[in-house]
Task: inverse folding
């Protein structure tokens, strides 16, 4: 009887080990495939601006001289910066399109709660 329970115990431990290993493998495979489906943007959404940036970069590398100050300032004035232009300008977080409390307001509220209680 002792011999049977010993083999039964060893069998159940190996079964549990196998099940844990199988669960971990399935979890790893699942987590790596789900991240690919998590993207919400279309793959061609940023392609146009990227092509423009690439073309401009190639033109700059073909030049033998570096751009002057006036040329650089003119490009920078067109958008966010000289390289990015106005790409993703609407997606940037600014006070105009952001909501919620600022850090200062949260600190003041926390200090008020701390000292007024």
Result:
């Amino acid at each position: 009887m002792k011999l049977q329970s010993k083999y039964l115990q060893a069998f159940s431990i190996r079964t549990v080990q196998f099940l844990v290993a199988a669960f971990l493998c399935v979890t790893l495979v699942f987590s790596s495939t789900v991240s690919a489906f998590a993207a919400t943007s279309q793959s061609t959404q940023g392609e146009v601006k990227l092509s423009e940036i690439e073309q401009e970069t190639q033109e700059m590398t073909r030049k033998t001289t570096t751009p002057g100050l006036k040329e650089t300032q003119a490009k920078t004035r067109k958008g966010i910066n000289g390289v990015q232009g106005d790409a993703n300008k609407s997606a940037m977080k600014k006070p105009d399109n952001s909501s919620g409390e600022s850090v200062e307001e949260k600190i003041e509220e926390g200090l008020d709660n701390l000292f007024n209680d």
